[in-house]
Structures are given as structure tokens and as C-alpha cells.
Design the sequence.
């Protein structure tokens, strides 16, 4: 497939590509036909993605149960094939498509911001470490395993490296050649990341379920439960008695949350690239905002210090929770750990809710214009925030129903009910605050004032009455001013010019403080459930009300969305912080 094949943009001449204004001068019939073909190409790639997602979902969910004749190595075989195809397409894109003449006429300045790509690289590094641990774990007893279990982490490591480089260099591209191939390739990449995410979530859930069964049952009962219920990993049927083998096993399960977040981050960036295929951007009507990241400039440090205190306190609560709940069988220590966990989260969620309400009130008085330009990145951010919040909403509402309908009610139940209600409120208020911030125009630079105002701003003290005495009345004749081309300044205008920037700076400082506090709080609320602090499995109220099969299934389905919500909120709040 050569570069001469331009799909639905083949009729564009080089002079037309140089200026994007030619689209408005095209005949309506030509523009309509191109739009129809654009939608047709998108629809074909969407159908491809839907079928692949359904196939992967079917295999992954079937491979998690013992009675279904689908094994985990069948899932690994499908994922390996999908990743190899994506690797081949990415190499083709980098070597051929992106190097064609007029392939990339413009770039989306909002796509792939530096903090998102930086987070992707961080998660990619941990994913590579996880793959190394997997290779070491499966290599410890390769004689009793299928070869695909060792091949899969090797291919996944190559896939992570190639995809990370691809997204780092090409996330902002608006491609105008090989449109249909690029759309299908991007959708295949997105589908592969979602399939890997589903496999990782399922594998982690099965592992935690087996760990809980082993802690609460004898070895004979555990083996019987495996026969009638969920499938064990085929690696567990082999002997892993050496210390290095146990280290590899525990290591890669602890690193699963990073691999899960990597897949979701990559999926979001690939989706934006897919939306930008064939897109023209007029930078005159859609200006590029050069944002400067200054972490501690113009801040009061109050909420930053408070956020750091919450972050450190949360790490302490997480360590104590892991020790008292997962490593101890005494019910009293379990209740103490649950009480401590709920009190910390209630305080944290309450503060976050109040801060979000305060930030939304400040936005009501913000004079900045709303950014109404087309922005696929912002649209995706809002959709992911609203969609991922549904997972935590579902868990909270299930908990509320179980607590209200159950008897008797104790202190743990009261704390759990308060925790569930605050979780709903905090998600709602935080979404409102983030969406408000994402739709605001960046502030103008403070140095863009007239020379007369600059001189006045530089004074340590300004006597407004003295200045007004030197200013002529509005009705008087200003020959010198008129000759020099300078407009007369009214005293009220002068006062306004001196006071408004201070008010704006005060608002911006508060918004920056709020954004940083929420960012640090969301980090600890992501770390706690991602690394084992999950009271939904340790609190008996919901488990007794919904049963041993329904409630774990609800949590396993909804909790990954709640964890992803926290990580995506961190990225969005960082953008709101820089935009403030």
C-alpha cells in the first residue's frame, strides 16, 4: 500500500492542504459525500472493535471458571495474536504512513499532554517489571506449563515498549493518508488494550478470591471449592516451593494495578488518535494555549500541606489495614481495622466534598470565557469521568440497600452507611468541579497591561486620591494626550484596574490550592483499593445480604471502574491546576 493512496482525501491538492479554509468553499455535494465516507470508515472500524471486544470478553470470562472448557492459555493465545498484529501495524504506521508526503498536516495540541504521556511511561515501566516477574515465575516450572504462558509475557513486554514509543511520538497526529487502515489499526490497538485490561482484572480477582478461600478454609475444603467454583491458575497446580518463585509470584500480582492503569491510559490516548484521523484544525479559530507548569508559584500551601498529610496518613492506614485484616484471623483486630479505614475515608471524603463545593462557587464568579471549541480530548475526559463514576455509584447504592435492610445495626454498619453516602456526594461534586475547570479558557498573562498600569502596579503604595487629582475631568480637553495618542483614564477605571487583577489572582490561587488538594487525595484513594484495602470483601453486611456469589461478582465488576476513576481524576485535576 503506497503513499499515493489517500483514501477519501485523495482529491485534495497540495495548495488546498496548505490552507484549511478550502473546506468552506467546496460544493455541498462533495463535502457531504466526504462526510458520509468518513462516517462509513469509522463505522467499519467500530464494528471490528465491537466484535473483537465481545470475543475477548467471552474468552476471558469463560476462562475464569472450572466447569467451562476454556483454559487460561486459550485466552493468552488470543491476546498474543492480537498484540502481534498491533505491533506489526504500529511498525507499518511509523515506517510508512507517518512518512508519506502530507500525511500529517496538523497536530491536535490538546491530545496527549505531557502529564498524560509521563503517566503512561511510569505505568509502562512497572508493567515491564511485572512481565519480568511473570517470565521468572513461569520459567520456574516450565516443564508442567503450556509454552504460551511464557511466550505471552514476552510478547506483552514488546507490545508495551512499541506502543509506548508510538503514543509518545504520535499521540497528537491528525493523519490524512491510509485513513481506513489507520482507523482499523487504532481500533485494533484500543481493543487489544481493553482485552489485556479485562484479562488482568479477572486474573487479579481470581487470585484474591483464592487467597481469601485459603485463609478461611482448610486445604481439603479449598481444593473442593476450586473443583465446584472458580478455576485456579494452571501454575498453582505446579509446585512453587522455592523462595525466588514465591517472590516472582507475589511481585507480579502486586504490580497488576499498574498494568491495569497502563491499559486504560493507552486506550484513552488511542481513542483520541482515532477521532483525529482525517481531522483538520484551524489554529486561528482554535488557538494553542502555551501552558506553563509552576507547581508552587502563587499558592498558599495550606491545602497542599493538608493533602500531603492525608496522603501520608492514608499510607499508614493502608499498612495497618493489610496487617490486621489480611494477616490476622482475630475478629477484634478486623473490626478495629475496618473502623479505622471508614473513619479515615469519611474525613477525607467529607473534606474533598466541601472543597469541591467551594471550588464550584469560585467558578461562579470567574470572569474567564468558556472554551467552546471542538476538543475530542476534553470530550473523552468528561465521558470517562462520568462513566467510571458509575462503578463506585453502583457499589455505594448496593451497600446502602444492604445496610438499611439488614438487622441488627452496629457501629461498623453506621460508618459503612456514612462512607457510602459520602462516596456518592464526593464523586458528584468532584465531577462538577473538574468539568467546570476543563471548560474554562486559560488565564491571560499578568504582564499584558499597558505601560501606565505597569508603573502603577510596581508601586508599593498608591494614593488613589492623589492620582485622581492629577487626572483631568472626563469632559476637559486633553491636548497633550490627544497629540501623543494616549487616552484619558478616569479615576474609577484606574481603581478598577488596580483591584481586579488582585481579585483574579486570589481566585486563581484558591483554585490551584483546591486542585492540588484533590489531586493528592485522589492518589491515596486510588492506592488503597488498588493495593488490597477493600472493605467490600471484609465487611459481612453486604456479603450476608447478597450472598457469597452475587456480592463478590458486583464488586469485581464495579471496583475496577472506581479505581480507574481515581487515576483519571488525578490526570484531569492536574490539567485543571495548570489551566487555573
Sequence:
Amino acid at each position: 500500500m503506497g503513499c499515493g493512496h489517500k483514501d477519501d482525501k485523495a482529491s485534495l491538492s497540495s495548495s488546498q492542504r496548505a490552507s484549511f479554509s478550502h473546506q468552506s468553499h467546496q460544493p455541498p455535494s462533495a463535502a457531504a459525500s466526504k462526510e458520509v465516507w468518513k462516517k462509513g470508515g469509522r463505522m467499519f472500524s467500530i464494528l471490528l472493535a465491537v466484535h473483537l471486544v465481545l470475543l475477548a470478553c467471552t474468552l476471558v470470562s469463560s476462562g475464569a471458571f472450572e466447569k467451562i472448557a476454556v483454559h487460561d492459555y486459550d485466552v493468552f493465545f488470543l491476546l498474543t495474536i492480537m498484540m502481534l498484529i498491533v505491533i506489526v501495524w504500529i511498525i507499518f504506521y511509523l515506517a510508512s504512513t507517518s512518512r508519506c508526503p502530507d500525511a500529517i498536516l496538523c497536530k491536535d495540541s490538546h491530545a496527549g499532554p505531557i502529564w498524560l504521556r509521563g503517566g503512561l511511561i511510569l505505568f509502562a515501566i512497572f508493567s515491564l517489571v511485572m512481565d519480568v516477574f511473570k517470565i521468572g515465575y513461569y520459567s520456574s516450572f516450565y516443564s508442567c506449563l503450556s509454552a504460551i504462558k511464557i511466550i505471552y509475557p514476552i510478547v506483552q513486554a514488546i507490545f508495551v515498549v512499541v506502543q509506548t514509543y508510538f503514543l509518545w511520538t504520535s499521540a497528537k497526529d491528525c493523519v490524512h493518508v491510509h485513513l481506513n487502515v489507520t482507523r482499523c489499526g487504532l481500533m485494533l490497538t484500543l481493543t487489544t488494550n481493553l482485552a489485556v485490561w479485562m484479562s488482568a482484572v479477572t486474573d487479579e480477582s481470581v487470585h484474591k478470591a483464592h487467597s481469601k478461600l485459603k485463609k478461611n478454609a482448610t486445604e481439603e475444603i479449598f481444593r473442593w471449592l476450586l473443583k465446584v467454583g472458580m478455576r485456579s491458575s494452571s501454575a498453582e497446580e505446579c509446585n512453587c516451593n522455592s523462595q525466588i518463585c514465591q517472590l516472582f509470584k507475589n511481585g507480579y500480582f502486586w504490580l497488576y494495578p499498574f498494568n491495569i492503569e497502563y491499559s486504560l491510559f493507552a486506550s484513552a490516548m488511542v481513542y483520541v488518535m482515532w477521532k483525529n484521523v482525517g481531522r483538520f484544525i484551524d489554529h486561528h479559530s482554535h488557538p494553542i494555549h502555551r501552558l506553563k507548569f509552576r507547581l508552587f508559584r502563587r499558592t498558599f500551601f495550606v491545602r497542599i500541606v493538608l493533602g500531603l498529610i492525608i496522603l501520608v496518613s492514608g499510607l499508614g492506614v493502608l499498612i495497618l489495614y493489610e496487617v490486621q485484616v489480611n494477616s490476622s484471623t482475630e475478629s477484634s483486630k478486623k473490626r478495629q481495622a475496618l473502623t479505622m479505614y471508614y473513619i479515615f475515608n469519611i474525613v477525607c471524603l467529607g473534606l474533598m466534598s466541601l472543597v469541591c463545593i467551594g471550588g464550584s462557587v469560585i467558578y461562579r464568579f470567574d470572569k474567564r470565557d468558556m472554551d467552546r471549541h471542538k476538543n475530542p480530548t476534553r470530550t473523552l475526559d468528561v465521558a470517562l469521568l462520568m462513566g467510571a463514576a458509575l462503578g463506585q455509584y453502583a457499589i455505594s447504592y448496593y451497600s446502602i440497600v444492604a445496610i438499611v435492610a439488614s438487622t441488627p445495626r452496629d457501629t461498623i454498619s453506621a460508618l459503612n452507611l456514612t462512607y457510602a453516602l459520602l462516596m456518592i456526594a464526593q464523586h458528584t461534586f468532584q465531577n462538577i468541579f473538574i468539568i467546570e475547570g476543563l471548560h474554562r479558557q486559560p488565564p491571560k498573562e499578568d504582564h499584558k497591561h499597558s505601560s501606565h498600569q505597569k508603573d502603577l502596579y510596581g508601586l508599593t503604595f498608591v494614593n488613589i486620591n492623589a492620582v485622581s487629582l492629577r487626572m483631568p475631568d472626563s469632559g476637559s480637553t486633553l491636548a497633550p494626550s490627544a497629540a501623543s495618542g494616549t487616552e484619558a483614564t478616569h479615576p474609577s477605571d484606574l481603581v478598577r484596574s488596580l483591584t481586579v487583577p488582585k481579585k483574579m489572582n486570589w481566585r486563581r490561587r484558591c483554585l490551584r490550592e483546591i486542585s492540588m488538594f484533590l489531586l493528592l487525595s485522589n492518589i491515596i484513594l486510588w492506592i488503597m483499593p488498588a493495593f488490597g484495602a477493600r472493605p467490600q470483601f471484609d465487611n459481612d453486611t453486604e456479603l450476608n445480604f447478597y450472598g457469597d456469589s452475587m456480592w463478590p461478582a458486583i464488586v469485581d465488576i464495579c471496583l475496577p471502574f472506581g479505581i480507574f476513576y481515581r487515576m483519571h481524576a488525578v490526570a484531569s485535576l492536574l490539567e485543571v491546576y495548570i489551566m487555573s
